[in-house]
Design brief:
The complex is a heterodimer of chains A (362) and B (78). Chain A has 362 residues and is mostly helical. Chain A has 14 helices and 2 strands, in the order αααβαααβαααααααα. Classes of the chains: A mainly alpha (362), B alpha+beta (78).
């Protein structure tokens, strides 16, 4: 049974890696077949929560992941409306996780995809990410950190997030005037695969991630706490399959999908200190949230309202990043962004301390 | 007999592991098996007699299962 689980997660990782690379061929930004942070940021822009013209588009991949997870959970009777575990605290942590993501320019998922495209800046991000998870695990999680238990919620509460996805998808297809779309050539928001292709890709990833529980943060947590590599194997498989697909695409097409370097990487900057600190904040925040942004999407599809609130925190964080000049660009991080990341690390640490060391034993 | 105990929060797992150590039960913490739940939380697996009377109480306790012929059989669910 254990061998089967490992095999399934490796196969899922291989499929997801190939999908991530092929989405770029179909039109997604380079090294961004998938990026949960960037895509939520694009959706925030499309809905007018920020007005950064280069990054406004309703990404069907996000809709697909949540609906794919919802469908898989429903079909296997695993859909369960539950929540109530410190939702506002989760919102705040997620807000700062997004600030970390947009300092680095990518979520943990895109970090792997950037690595598979040869972007060495992602390696520095990975070091920060792992260190953040390590601090969260050993200083807080293993010392009693808890946001308290979840409780069963009314069925409707669990279904709202998938229903919102259907509505947002309708807005994408209908494209009314009040939805913002980046104009051609304006930036990453203007680069996207066809709607149907993106949606199917998201659905497949949503189903696979729900069945395998793929989670970058959970992978390192299991490695640190239990010396178990099962979840990490999934991400290693994503890395290897995306890397191989990128190399093959570079050989058989005129475009370059693999560039082994620090400089000249798409939608990335070379400031190592802030790539490190941005992903440190992401790893630290995500371990206290109990999962990476991809996992939060999947859980929100399974009926977890705490994860739905977390996704909303990520979206609001993205809007703040672009309204207040916190997001990095290819030119590098901004001063506002640096200050926000430091504040984020402090706030997440305070939340960790309060929920670990300043509570009564039950 | 192998038992697996799942919790709503990781702190529950830590506390139950301490309880097992105190009760001198052979126990280990591990990720929740996929066959048991779609959650990626942690649990405690411990060994005890077939007729072990599970008396541990906690608000964080979610489920207790027995491993019988390779299948998880629920004996308590919150």
């Amino acid at each position: 049974m254990k061998k089967n689980e490992k095999l399934v997660i490796i196969i899922a990782g291989i499929i997801i890696g190939i999908i991530a690379s092929v989405l770029v061929v179909f039109g997604n930004p380079a090294n961004m077949g998938f990026c949960i942070a960037c895509f939520l940021r694009d959706i925030a822009g499309a809905l007018g929560l920020h007005r950064a013209a280069p990054v406004q588009y309703i990404r069907p991949e996000i809709i697909g992941i949540i609906l794919g997870s919802f469908g898989a959970a429903f079909a296997t009777k695993e859909f369960k409306a539950q929540g109530g575990s410190a939702p506002l605290t989760r919102f705040v942590i997620a807000f700062f996780v997004m600030i970390g993501c947009l300092m680095f320019l990518g979520c943990p998922f895109r970090m792997i995809i950037r690595l598979a495209g040869g972007d060495l800046n992602a390696l520095i991000g990975l070091v920060g990410f792992v260190l953040g998870i390590g601090v969260g695990t050993f200083v807080f999680l293993n010392k009693g950190y808890s946001l308290k238990r979840t409780y069963a919620q009314p069925m409707l509460d669990g279904i709202i997030m998938p229903v919102i996805q259907v509505i947002v998808f309708a807005l994408l297809v209908a494209a009314p005037a009040f939805i913002f779309f980046s104009e051609a050539g304006a930036g990453p928001g203007a680069k996207h695969a066809a709607i149907a292709i993106s949606l199917v890709a998201g659905l497949v990833v949503g189903v696979l991630a729900q069945r395998t529980r793929l989670c970058m943060v959970g992978g390192f947590r299991d490695l640190f706490l239990f010396k178990q590599t099962k979840l990490l194997l999934g991400f290693f498989a994503i890395f290897v399959s995306a890397l191989v697909t990128n190399v093959i695409l570079t050989v058989v097409t005129d475009a370059t999908y693999f560039n082994f370097a620090f400089a000249g990487q798409p939608v990335a900057h070379t400031d190592g200190v802030w790539n490190f600190l941005g992903m440190f904040l992401v790893g630290f925040g995500c371990i206290l949230l109990g999962g990476c942004p991809l996992r939060q999407l999947v859980l929100s599809g399974e009926g977890n309202t705490d994860s739905a609130i977390t996704v909303l925190g990520l979206i609001v964080g993205a809007a703040f990043c672009h309204n207040f000049g916190l997001a990095s660009s290819a030119d590098g991080p901004t001063l506002n962004g640096k200050i926000a990341v430091i504040i984020g690390i402090v706030v997440v640490a305070i939340i960790g301390v309060v929920n670990t060391y300043c509570k009564k034993e039950a | 007999m192998i038992y697996v105990v799942t919790f709503f929060a990781h702190i529950g797992t830590i506390r139950f592991k301490r309880y097992c150590d105190k009760e001198k039960l052979k126990a280990k913490m591990m990720p929740v098996p996929r066959a048991l739940s779609s959650s990626c939380g942690t649990c405690v697996q411990f060994e005890a007699d077939d007729d072990y009377e599970f008396s541990y109480e906690s608000e964080e306790l979610e489920e207790v299962v027995k491993l019988i012929d390779g299948e998880y059989v629920s004996i308590y669910k919150a």
